[in-house]
Amino acid sequence: MLRTVKPKNARSKRALHAREPKEVEHPRTTIFVKGTHAGERVNHVMKELIALKRPHVISFSKKNAVRPFEDAASLEFWAQKNDSSMFVVGQSNKKRPDGMTFVRMYDNRVLDMCEVGVEGWRSMQEFKTPKATPGHKPLMHFASDVFDTHPRFQQLKSILMDFFNGEVIESICLNGLESVVSITAGPLPDSPSTSTELPKVHVRAYTTRFLSSGTRIPRVELTPMGPSVDLVLRRHQDPDPELMKQALKRPKLKKQDIEKGLGNKKETKNMEVDEMGDLRGRVHIARQDLGKLQTRKMKGLKAARDESDAVDGGDIAEGMENERRKRRRI
């Protein structure tokens, strides 16, 4: 572990302040680590994942004798030193060939781990198609029910979403969706007893093309850009309940803003949050009298006023003529 020191100048103070917990964290920086023997297939797959993850990635070129499931002290040291919260460790041996371990960190401690084996892959270079711009946020697509029902696939879904997720944004332009990462899995067997009987996971990456459709909504076409990777689930480590509770903890005011709309309960009357997370409110107003509504002044609306003025003027002229006749008689 690194020893804790006090900052000696303003620069080091700013660096320590940048590493403190924030309400909205920075994008996860992933460190790719090669084991003592990674293998050619794992090395190529890790290079392809680095290309998709850029620029929030750090790659160790040297080999390291690291075993995440036995001893995670090295990972905790690197996480604190590089301000990283995720690792991808490549290791291949006779018992578990072509293996990659995804490790998530929280507060420089190991949160959970999931090991997968690479069964098949195709490089980006084999797809002679346009590639997405590095750093763009991809659209994630999980095409199977097991990602919502089976605990092993739920953990893998959460890890992959953290891996491909970039900066936290409130909205995105349609043209900003340059790539789609589609992850599919086959159906579960009737009674799987071991992880070897679980279905394979297929990871595919596509680029998007927006074509004219005659309406405001364009027609979207997906073009494979690579890589194409087939994975099988192996070992895993569930998160510690107390550590997971701390990782999911949110500020009280922010939690109330998300669930109730506002922090003060008195102001949340007639307000609710729908299934999409949007805040909706109901406003009650009195009955409106449209007769007193001020409309736009137009020349066509002056006719009625001119006619009324003409009628009033005729009555006045007739009254003056009658007065003159009475005076002459006298």
Short description:
The chain has 330 residues and is α/β, with parallel strands linked by helices. It is built from eight helices and eleven strands. It has helices at residues 10-18, 40-53, 73-82, 146-149, 151-164, 241-247, 252-259, 303-329; strands at 30-34, 57-63, 86-91, 99-106, 109-122, 139-143, 179-185, 201-211, 219-237, 271-273, 279-281.
Sequence of secondary-structure elements? HEHEHEEEEHHEEEHHEEH
- Count of separate DSSP helical elements: 8
Unreliable stretches (pLDDT < 50, length at least 5) are 261-266
Radius of gyration over alpha carbons?
A: 34 Å
Using the alpha-carbon principal axes, give the shape: elongated
Describe this protein with a few key phrases.
alpha/beta, 28% helix, two-stranded antiparallel sheet, 8 helices, 9-stranded mixed β-sheet, 330 residues
What does this structure look like?
The protein is an alpha/beta fold. 28% of the residues lie in helices and 27% in strands. The protein has helices at residues 10-18, 40-53, 73-82, 146-149, 151-164, 241-247, 252-259, 303-329, and strands spanning 30-34, 57-63, 86-91, 99-106, 109-122, 139-143, 179-185, 201-211, 219-237, 271-273, 279-281. A 9-stranded mixed β-sheet has the order 2-1-3-4-5-9-8-7-6. A hairpin with a 5-residue loop joins strand 10 (271-273) and strand 11. The longest helix is centred in the last third of the chain and has 27 residues, at 303-329.
Topology (elements, then pairings):
Layout: H1 10-18, E1 30-34, H2 40-53, E2 57-63, H3 73-82, E3 86-91, E4 99-106, E5 109-122, E6 139-143, H4 146-149, H5 151-164, E7 179-185, E8 201-211, E9 219-237, H6 241-247, H7 252-259, E10 271-273, E11 279-281, H8 303-329
Parallel strand pairs: 1-2, 1-3, 6-7
Antiparallel strand pairs: 3-4, 4-5, 5-9, 7-8, 8-9, 10-11
